[in-house]
From TrEMBL:
Protein name as it appears in the record: Methylenetetrahydrofolate reductase
Matches recorded under SUPFAM superfamilies: FAD-linked oxidoreductase
NCBIfam families in UniProt: fadh2
Catalytic activity: (6S)-5-methyl-5,6,7,8-tetrahydrofolate + NAD(+) = (6R)-5,10-methylene-5,6,7,8-tetrahydrofolate + NADH + H(+)
The keyword Transcription regulation is assigned to this record: no
InterPro entries the record matches: FAD-linked_oxidoreductase-like (IPR029041), Mehydrof_redctse-like (IPR003171), MTHF_reductase_bac (IPR004620)
GO MF entries: FAD binding; methylenetetrahydrofolate reductase (NADH) activity
Recorded name of the encoding gene: metF
Length: 290
């Protein structure tokens, strides 16, 4: 089954994103969380890696463990940061040998301590070039790319950002997974804009449940995602961990229900290696295949 095929069935197909732990105990804990998430019959798992390409090896180790544990397809993130074309191809070769099914192809953020992306000698400047590299040399890999409902922080304007996305799709991307957002209206506007621009691959919303308001503010600030006033006010009424967890999970649950009612082909959950929030917000919902 291709990556695009995952979204051609009835219902709402879900997937989860993981982050590579720093220790072997952390990997064991992550696998326990993956087992809990399997009750929701996800279609696949993705795994990112650290800034500037750090922890790439751990990413592949995590994905290999997850695939053995779940027998599901797995996807590795891959960025242009700090790698030549030759190094990117070597990573892709290693990934395919280890049974990785899909790649989430990204330009990548500037390394820590810098403010601008710079091209590595012999490397790539844009994510569409990475998609093209994969399609030319590893045609059997599925490819997902990122979309930005509230516009990429470096884009001049929304139209320019949409043009960048279309180049990635035209280069051969199978699906678009969006950056996190907290107002579904932002996603619907983005989806309509994609349709008008001739972007016809599945547009999959990405959801990160807010379980700690300070952490959410930090993450949202990094990617220019607005936290609705109503959500912020509800969370700030009580700074206890339990209150913030309940409020954040309920908001994500209502987002999920509304997205499903509005016909999204799937939802991608950023779970930060914790299963509790995702499990609670998904409990009792009728997803694809359940």
């Amino acid at each position: 089954m291709t990556l695009a095929d995952q979204y051609r069935s009835d219902g709402c197909a879900i997937s989860f994103e993981l982050f590579p732990p720093k220790t072997s105990d952390g990997i064991d804990s992550l696998c326990e969380n993956v087992e809990r998430l399997m009750q929701f019959q996800p279609r696949f798992f993705t795994c990112t890696y650290g800034a500037g390409g750090s922890s790439q090896g751990t990413t592949l180790e995590v994905l290999q463990r997850v695939k053995q544990l779940t027998n599901l397809p797995v996807a590795s993130h891959l960025t242009c940061v700090g790698s030549s074309t030759q190094q990117l191809c070597e990573y892709l070769r290693q990934a395919t040998e280890m049974g990785i099914d899909y790649i989430v192809a990204l330009r990548g953020d500037p390394p820590k301590g810098t403010t601008e992306f710079s091209v590595t000698e012999g490397g790539l400047r844009y994510a569409n070039e990475l998609v093209d590299l994969i399609r030319q040399n590893f045609p059997n890999l599925g490819v997902a790319v990122a979309g930005y409902p509230e516009v990429h922080q470096e884009a001049i304007d929304a139209q320019t950002d949409l043009g960048n996305l279309k180049r990635k799709v035209d280069a051969g991307a199978d699906i678009v997974i969006t950056q996190l957002f907290y107002e579904n209206s932002d996603f619907y506007r983005f989806r309509d804009d994609c349709s008008r621009a001739g972007i016809n691959v599945p547009i999959v919303p990405g959801i990160l449940p807010v379980t700690n308001f300070k952490q959410a503010q930090k993450i949202a600030g990094m990617c220019k995602a607005a936290i609705p006033n109503q959500l912020a006010e509800a969370m700030m009424k009580n700074d206890s961990a339990e209150h913030q967890f309940r409020v954040g999970v309920e908001h994500a649950r209502q987002q999920t229900i509304d997205l499903m009612d509005n016909g999204v082909p799937g939802i991608h959950y950023y779970v930060l290696n914790r299963s509790a929030a995702a499990a609670e917000l998904l409990d009792g919902l009728q997803m694809a295949g359940t």
